[in-house]
Amino acid sequence: KPLFYDLAASTIEFNMPVIEEQA
Amino acid sequence: PLSFYYSAIKSAIEEGNLALVVDHANTGLKEFPKEAEFAKIEIVALIKQEHPRKALDAILRARTAKLFSSNALTYEEAYCHFTLGGYNNAKTALRKAKPGVAVDRLVAQIAYKSGQFSECIEAYKKLLLTLEPESQEYNDVLLNLAAAMAALA
Ligand SMILES: [K+]
Question: For B74-84, what is each residue's pLDDT tens digit?
Answer without folding.
Answer: 999 999 999 99
